[in-house]
Amino acid sequence: MRAASWNSAYHAALLAGLLAGCAVAPPEPKPAPFASSASSTLTPVNLNGNSAPFREGYADGCESAGSRSQRRHDDRYKTEADYMMGWNDGFSVCRKHR
Questions:
Q1: Which residues contact 80 (CB under 8 A, 6 or more apart)?
Q2: 1 three-state secondary structure
Q3: What's the Cα-to-Cα distance from 16 to each of 10, 11, 13, 19, rounded to whole Å?
Q4: Rounded to an integer, what distance in angstroms lies between the CA atom of residue 21 and that of residue 16?
Q5: Residue 6 and which of 22, 33, 83, 89 are 20 to 30 A apart at CA?
Q6: For residue 66, what is the DSSP state?
Q7: In angstroms, what CA-CA distances link 73 with 14, 70, 84?
Q8: Exposed, middle or buried, 31 (CB in 10 Å: 0-12/13-18/19+)?
């Protein structure tokens, strides 16, 4: 009788351990970064993998699309290709969504 009760206790503990492992919640996904705070009402745009000048240009272009005044660093726009492409992309995408 002792072997049977030990066997039952072992199976009960094993089953409890397996069920407890199922109760672990998955980690919360990280939110996608936004181009800027001005675009937080838009679809999230993942700018990871782009250079800092591109991201800065994108944020400036997006903010320009939603305001009456243009936010752009003209010297950087003329001399930095990444800033210029980011500004153009940000302005185009955000203008379509406003």
A1: 53, 57
A2: coil
A3: 10, 8, 5, 5
A4: 9
A5: 22
A6: T
A7: 65, 9, 9
A8: exposed
User: On the CB side of 63, how many CA atoms lie within 13 Å of its CA?
Assistant: 16
Q: Is 26 left (phi over 0), alpha (psi -120 to 50) or beta?
A: beta
Per-residue pLDDT of the chain (98 residues), as tens digits, is 455 666 677 777 777 766 666 555 666 665 544 544 444 455 578 899 999 999 999 999 999 998 888 899 999 999 999 999 999 999 999 988 76
- pLDDT recorded at residue 52: 94
List the chain domain ranges.
37-96
